[in-house]
Structure formats: structure tokens, C-alpha cells
Write a structure and sequence with these properties.
Chain lengths: 77, 430
């Protein structure tokens, strides 16, 4: 059986992806505060929603990458 | 002047503070106006019929003896166990009789409480009034319409107090409700509904081997002595309906039957009636003895609100809107809008005509804050003694009892004769 080796490079990449999604979620929050004219406090108080969105974006990204690499693997074969 | 404790009167005062009732309801006034009553002379009281209700009234009279300076000096009952119990409950101090006529002969008795079965009310009350005694007589007034009228005639001719035991007139929930109605708080009363539902056979157990006492103990179940649900229960609620409407009905129709307790009783075990007032208001009444899910209530319905005194609640037809909740955070609104955008094309399954007309939402509000331990049956005895002290009846109080019994008996007649009954001329009060 082949050992799976997770390299630091991979972890770093995943952290960067998560950070990117976190920034996107905060950006969406800023937009919604402007559109719905709610309080700027929500930059802090809505962090739980930001974290949910980040988590969901990350899960979706795993799913998308899984399909992408799966298709590429079969084409190469 | 003797010092008295004034807790109950104070309570009534507090519960109805600032109320117009002192003006509108003189019987309440008699109870609340402690300053104008002279308590120095002891009022001597007798009691005739010391069964279930009579024992309770005796208990209240004993409790009140110090507070309002009264003494139960005589008791009367023609059933040995109750006779003995009554003697015991007065600590052996009161004179005891089997025959009420002996009690009437005691010269210094000022007032007498009658709590015998219905068919005995009239002749005892009339004899007492004619002998110059003030009388508190349990509801209903009498078994027969002519007897009710004879009691009324004697009441007016002797000028003595004749108070009928409708304790709701001394109940702060009801007093406050009348005040709310007079102030227009529930708008125009357009319908009254009342019901008294029980789930039992209404029988009392007979002593071992004494089937001969059936009619004496279970007198409520036999036509000779009672009209059952109408005189024993409905009379209270008819009194409330008339009082709240400020008038008496013009006609009644109804149906009754024995559909459950087929045990030899003669009175109906369920009744349903409609009393009509001259302004078109209907008072819809029913009583039954085989289901108590809805219990007991009087529902006074106006175009602006509803009152339910038994549960002490008032409701609004248009409840004040609840304050808007603060808007959710912007990001939540965004997510909802995105979701709405995706699913907004749903086709509605019904149009608005399919929406059921459900009851108005809201738990309402208390009519009045009740003091724990307050008892309106005790308060009405206090009111009675206050009238006795004055030596004259309280205006308007007797008539409440009169019309309650008249319309209870006319209701019974309507059911028995299967027709709409109007008030016969000879029963009108001048
Ligand atoms: N206001 C209320 O809420 C209320 C409640 C219960 C009863 N009541 C009324 O009280 C009255 C009595 O009801 P109850 O449940 O106490 O009945 P009950 O049968 O328990 O008591 C009646 C008593 O009167 C006695 N009696 C009968 N004829 C008599 C006579 N000629 N002389 C002396 N004593 C006599 C009986 O022996 C008995 O002890 C009825 O009119 C009833 O409608 C009113």
C-alpha cells in the first residue's frame, strides 16, 4: 500500500485557499452592509456567518477540485 | 364605634380603584363604604337549611362574626345529621330547630339566611319577610313563576331586605368587566355566549340502606323540587347576561333532553337555549353533564373585544401590533434574498379565499388582579349584612335575582312546551 505523504507545501496551499475565501466572505459582508444599510458593527458581529460562508466555499472548492483532477486523471490515462 | 378589620373592603377598593362602580352599583357601594356604616350593634342572624351550601354560608358567617359584628344565634334543618352538624358548627351556642316557624318566633333575630332546596324557598322567605326579618335567600328564587312573583310582591310590600344569592355581583372580575363595558372598551355587545359543562351524574350518595332519602338528598334531579340545570346553574349566568346587557330578554326558545344519565332523573341532563334582547342581541346558552372540556364561562362579545370573567381575561378584536423585530444582519438578508431569488418562482397552492378564518391571536390580559383567598360568596354576605344594618334593601339588587329566576323558569317552559316564550304581563315589575 502506498503511503500518502502530505507535504508542508500542500498545507500552505490549503491555508492560502481558506484565507482567500475568508477575504471573499468579508468582502461580501461589506457589500451587504452597504446594500442593506445595516451597521458597520456587523464586520465583527457577523463573523460567525463569515466563517460559515468560508467553510462552505472551501467545501465547494474541494468538490470542484476533486472533479477537475478526476477528469484530468482519466483523460491522461 | 367598634373597631373592625377592613381587609376585604380595602381589597375591593384597591382592585377597583378609581372605578365608576361606586356610583353604578349600590350593592358594591354598601360593601365599600365603610365609613358610613355603624358596626356598634350586633346583628343576629339565623340560618335555615344547613346542608352543603348552608354549611359553607354558616362557615363564612362565623368567619365574619368578629369583623362585622354579627352572631349566628339560630340554626334550622329538618334532616338529623345536618341539624346535629349545624349545632356543632356553631359551637353549640346557637338555638337549633327542626321547624323554621319556631326560628321565626325568636324576636331578636334581625336577618335569616335560607339555603334549603328550591321548592322550599318561597314560603319560608315570605313567612320571614312578613315577620319583619331581612332575608338572604339562595338562588334561584323559587320553583314556580307564581311563587317568584309572590316573593317579589312581599319584598316590595314589607320593605325588608331580600337578597338573592348571585355572588357574581360581588366578584371583582365581574364588577370590573361591567365597568369596562360601560366605558365602551369592548364596543357594542352584539352576542353573549355562556355555558356550564360538567362530566358527572350530579348525584349525592345516600346513607347506607336509606333509599327512601333519594328525593330529599337528590332533590335537584326531580321536577317537583327543581328545574335542574336551569335553576341550579343557568340562573347565575342569566343574571350575568342581563346585568351586562343592562336589560332583560324579550323571548326565549330552547331544547333540552335526557341523553346520557338515564338513571330515573326527571330534569334534563343537557339544555341549549337562545334568549333574545330587544336590540337583536342573542344570548346563547348551553349546559351539559357528560363533557367538561370547555368547563364554565360567560363570553361577552363586542365589536371591539371580548370578556371572559371565569378565566379573568379580556381580549381585543384588533390586538395592538407587536413591535417589529430588528432587521437581521445585512449578510443574512443577502443570503435570504439569494435564496428567494432561486426559489421565488414557486406556484401558490391556494388563493386567499381558502385561508380559514382562525381566531384572533393573543392571550389577552387579566381583567383584574384577584387577591388570593378572596371569596365572592363571603363578600355577598357582607353586602347583605351592610343592607341589614341600613334597614333597607340596596337599590337594584333584588331585581337582578328576580329576572334571573324568571328567565331561568321561562327557559325551562320554552323547552318543555317547545315554543318561543315571551314575558307574561303578570310577571312584569311595576
Ligand atoms: N350560590 C351558589 O353558588 C349555590 C351553590 C350551591 C347551592 N346553592 C343553593 O343553595 C340551596 C341549598 O343547596 P344545597 O346544595 O346546600 O342543598 P342540600 O340538599 O345540601 O341542603 C339543603 C338543606 O336544607 C334542609 N332542608 C330542606 N327542607 C327544609 C326545611 N323545610 N326546613 C329546614 N331545613 C330544610 C335539608 O335537610 C338540607 O340539609 C339551593 O337553593 C341551591 O340552589 C347555591
Amino acid at each position: 500500500m502506498k503511503d500518502i505523504v502530505i507535504k508542508w507545501r500542500h498545507i500552505k496551499r490549503e491555508i492560502v485557499i481558506i484565507l482567500l475565501f475568508y477575504i471573499i466572505a468579508n468582502f461580501v459582508n461589506v457589500i451587504s452592509i452597504l446594500v442593506y444599510k445595516t451597521s458597520w458593527d456587523e464586520l465583527i458581529t457577523s463573523q460567525k456567518y463569515i466563517l460559515y460562508i468560508t467553510e462552505w466555499l472551501y467545501i465547494i472548492s474541494i468538490f470542484v477540485r476533486f472533479i477537475y483532477f478526476g477528469i484530468r486523471y482519466f483523460i491522461k490515462k | 364605634m367598634k373597631t373592625i378589620r377592613i381587609s376585604r373592603r380595602d381589597f375591593m377598593g384597591k382592585a377597583l380603584a378609581g372605578s365608576a362602580l361606586l356610583m353604578a352599583y349600590p350593592w358594591f357601594n354598601a360593601l365599600a363604604d365603610k365609613s358610613s356604616t355603624d358596626y356598634s350593634k350586633k346583628v343576629k342572624v339565623g340560618i335555615i337549611g344547613v346542608g352543603s351550601r348552608g354549611s359553607l354560608l354558616l362557615h363564612y358567617l362565623n368567619e365574619l362574626s368578629e369583623e362585622i359584628n354579627i352572631e349566628v344565634v339560630a340554626v334550622c334543618d329538618n334532616y338529623e345529621p345536618h341539624y346535629q352538624r349545624a349545632i356543632k358548627n356553631t359551637g353549640g351556642k346557637a338555638k337549633a330547630f327542626y321547624d323554621y316557624r319556631k326560628l321565626i318566633e325568636i324576636p331578636d333575630i334581625d336577618a335569616v339566611v335560607i339555603a334549603v332546596p328550591l321548592h322550599e324557598h318561597a314560603h319560608i322567605a315570605i313567612d320571614l319577610l312578613n315577620a319583619g326579618k331581612h332575608v338572604f335567600c339562595e338562588k334561584a328564587m323559587a320553583r314556580h313563576l307564581e311563587d317568584v312573583k309572590r316573593m317579589a310582591d312581599t319584598f316590595y310590600s314589607t320593605g325588608k331586605v331580600l337578597q338573592i344569592g348571585h355572588q357574581r355581583m360581588f366578584d371583582p372580575r365581574y364588577l370590573k368587566a361591567v365597568e369596562l363595558i360601560n366605558a365602551g372598551e369592548i364596543g357594542k355587545i352584539t352576542q353573549i355566549r355562556a355555558f356550564w359543562h360538567r362530566n358527572n351524574d350530579w348525584r349525592r350518595p345516600l346513607p347506607e340502606g336509606r333509599t327512601d332519602l333519594e328525593r330529599k338528598i337528590n332533590w335537584r334531579l326531580y321536577r317537583e323540587y327543581s328545574c335542574g340545570l336551569m335553576t341550579e346553574l343557568a340562573s347565575h349566568q342569566i343574571q350575568v347576561a342581563n346585568w351586562f346587557k343592562g336589560k332583560t330578554p324579550v323571548s326565549v326558545m330552547g331544547k333540552g333532553s335526557i341523553n346520557y344519565w338515564k338513571d330515573g332523573r326527571e330534569v334534563y341532563d343537557n339544555v341549549a337555549l337562545i334568549y333574545s334582547y330587544d336590540d337583536g342581541t342573542q344570548f346563547i346558552y348551553d349546559s351539559m353533564t357528560s363533557n367538561r372540556h370547555y368547563g364554565l364561562e360567560e363570553q361577552i362579545m363586542g365589536d371591539e373585544g371580548t370578556l371572559e370573567m371565569e378565566v379573568n381575561r379580556r381580549y381585543w378584536e384588533h390586538p395592538p401590533p407587536k413591535p417589529e423585530p430588528p432587521p437581521p444582519p445585512g449578510i443574512v438578508q443577502l443570503m435570504k434574498d439569494i435564496e428567494g431569488g432561486i426559489f421565488s418562482d414557486a406556484i401558490p397552492l391556494t388563493n386567499s379565499s381558502w385561508i380559514p378564518e382562525l381566531k384572533v391571536e393573543g392571550d389577552g390580559k387579566k381583567i383584574v388582579n384577584r387577591e388570593k383567598g378572596f371569596d365572592e360568596s363571603k363578600a355577598q354576605l357582607e353586602g347583605f349584612i351592610a343592607s341589614v344594618r341600613k334597614g333597607e334593601p340596596t337599590k337594584g339588587l333584588f331585581e337582578q335575582g328576580y329576572w334571573a329566576t324568571i328567565w331561568a323558569l321561562l327557559g325551562q317552559k320554552a323547552m318543555d312546551e317547545q315554543r318561543i316564550i315571551e314575558l307574561p304581563n303578570e310577571l312584569k315589575l311595576i
